[in-house]
Automatic annotation (TrEMBL):
CDD domains xref list: NTP-PPase_MazG_Cterm (cd11529), NTP-PPase_MazG_Nterm (cd11528)
Family of this protein: Belongs to the nucleoside triphosphate pyrophosphohydrolase family.
Positions of the UniProt region annotated as Disordered: 248-270
EC annotation from Swiss-Prot or TrEMBL: 3.6.1.8
PANTHER family: NUCLEOSIDE TRIPHOSPHATE PYROPHOSPHOHYDROLASE
Highest taxon, organism lineage: Bacteria
GO biological process: dATP catabolic process; dGTP catabolic process; dTTP catabolic process; dUTP catabolic process; response to stress; TTP catabolic process; UTP catabolic process
Reaction it catalyzes: ATP + H2O = AMP + diphosphate + H(+)
NCBIfam families attached to this UniProt entry: mazG, PRK09562.1
Pfam families reported for this sequence: MazG
Name of protein: Nucleoside triphosphate pyrophosphohydrolase
SUPFAM superfamilies, per database record: all-alpha NTP pyrophosphatases
Amino acid composition bias (Basic and acidic residues), ranges on this chain: 250-270
Length: 270
């Protein structure tokens, strides 16, 4: 019964999308193409992440729906070009998951005792798929439009797979200290001799890259960690804004000392 309901609702969403794109549909929807929808796809993906971090099931349900509409919309655009349809998309991902999980779907498949072994086998299968595409670079399937933090982590993981990685965590910590010292040294030169934006930006980038690497070795996603910190900063500062508002003030009317006290209050209330 649940399966039929799911099929019905997906079919309904496809029909709604087709109507929106149809002759008597919405002018805005009719004007869209894959390129113009990219910002909305990014936005909806980020809102799903925000709902997850808020641990809000109702919001997550809503945001997943918005993201699902983006998938259906893109599939509809492709169907109009006779390229593929939503069924092809679903079949493609189902076939890929089955192929990449031989330990689950094949009786004669390998047996794994840990998630790490599963991930290693997953990467081996992906490597086999890449060889068929005749692209020799280990970075070939890292999207250029990834955020810089996520791209750094992906590059590091790819390099580590072929042996280009620190052997232990103390070496990684040492690299972070080295990059921090180089950044501070360059900062000191800027303070003494004037601005050299290119050099200090380069050293700052090296420091960030080393921190991403440290996070990777600790099993921490830098992208997720910074997303959580951004959300925490926003929440605490909004507490400052709301409290000041009850006092008939705005942050511009306040001073750093007062806002610092409110910041500490916000931390205690968490």
């Amino acid at each position: 019964m649940q399966s039929k309901s799911l099929t019905d609702e997906i079919g309904k969403l496809q029909e709604v999308t087709a109507v929106l794109r149809g002759e008597n549909g919405c002018p805005w929807d009719k004007e869209q193409d894959h390129q113009t929808l990219v910002p909305y796809l990014i936005e909806e993906s980020q809102e799903v992440i925000e709902a997850i971090l808020k641990n809000d099931d109702e919001l997550l349900k809503e945001e997943l729906g918005d993201l699902l509409f983006q998938v259906v919309f893109h599939a509809r655009l492709a169907e109009e070009r006779n390229a593929f349809d939503l069924g092809d998309v679903a079949k493609g991902i189902s076939d890929k998951l089955i192929f990449r999980h031989p330990h689950v779907f094949k009786p004669e498949g390998p047996a794994f005792s840990s998630s790490q072994e599963v991930l290693e086998n997953w990467e081996k299968i992906k490597d086999q798929e890449k060889k068929k595409s005749n692209d020799s670079s280990i970075f070939s399937n890292v999207p250029e439009n990834f955020s810089s933090l996520l791209k750094a982590e992906k590059y590091q993981k790819k390099a580590a797979k072929v042996g280009f990685d620190w052997k232990n965590i103390s070496d990684v910590q040492g690299k972070v200290r080295e990059e921090m010292e180089e950044f501070l040294a360059e900062f000191g030169r800027v303070q003494a001799n004037g601005s050299n934006q290119v050099r200090i930006e380069e050293e700052f980038g090296d420091l960030l890259f080393s921190l991403v690497n440290l996070g990777r070795h600790l099993g921490i996603s830098s992208e997720t960690a910074l997303t959580r910190t951004n959300a925490k900063f926003k929440k605490r500062f909004q507490y400052i804004e709301k409290t000041l508002q009850t006092r008939g003030k705005t942050p511009k009317d306040s001073d750093l000392e007062e806002m610092d006290r409110l910041w500490d209050e916000a931390k205690k209330n968490e």
